[in-house]
Write a structure and sequence with these properties.
Distance between the termini: 76 Å
Strand content: under 5%
Number of helices: 8
Helix content: 55-70%
């Protein structure tokens, strides 16, 4: 036994999202949006486009209750997947993690349907604005669960990855509701 105190381990080096990471664990496949988060340009937008397409395929096959259950399950599975993947990447909220966009945009589409392609495109544009620009409440939600650099990534940070996108979804839905109220 040594008399010198144990030194803290150095922080893990941040890892890039790669196909190798994607296929190495089911959590990574989910968190990285089944590959959509690997886009070198605007992975959040690409992940949201993937979510839109997936929703259009899934939604007609599910009733209201089933879609609600899918969203609830996607929240908890996504929280787990985002936490595991952020830890593996050693980054608190990597841009390649897009499951948060997928879940939030599914929620938006579920609540605004039925609507045509134009209504869906408006929802997409509003959500991308709130998610990327992070005005007001979205910025607050984004900071709320962020850890400090070098701090271990835990369940709170995993929740934070998802939470700010849910706040962006809420802001999107409020704008759409206001629009529908003013111009029925």
């Amino acid at each position: 036994m040594s008399d010198t105190p144990a030194l803290p381990l150095p922080a893990a080096e941040p890892q890039r999202a790669t196909v190798r990471l994607l296929v190495s664990h089911p959590a990574h496949a989910i968190a990285l949006g089944f590959g959509s988060g690997l886009s070198p340009v605007a992975p959040g937008t690409v992940g949201t486009l993937w979510a839109w397409l997936a929703f259009l395929v899934i939604q007609p096959r599910l009733g209201t209750a089933e879609m609600g259950m899918l969203l609830l399950a996607s929240f908890f599975v996504g929280w787990w997947a985002c936490t595991v993947t952020a830890r593996a990447m050693a980054v608190a909220d990597p841009g390649a993690i897009v499951w948060d966009e997928v879940l939030a945009f599914w929620l938006i589409l579920w609540l605004v349907m039925p609507t045509g392609l134009l209504g869906q495109a408006v929802a997409f544009a509003l959500f991308r604005y709130f998610d990327a620009a992070k005005p007001g409440p979205v910025a607050w939600a984004d900071r709320l669960f962020k850890g400090r650099r070098g701090q271990p990534i835990g369940w709170a940070q995993g929740f934070g990855i998802v939470f700010d996108d849910l706040v962006a979804a809420l802001c999107t839905l409020l704008v759409i509701a206001g629009w529908r109220w003013l111009w029925p």
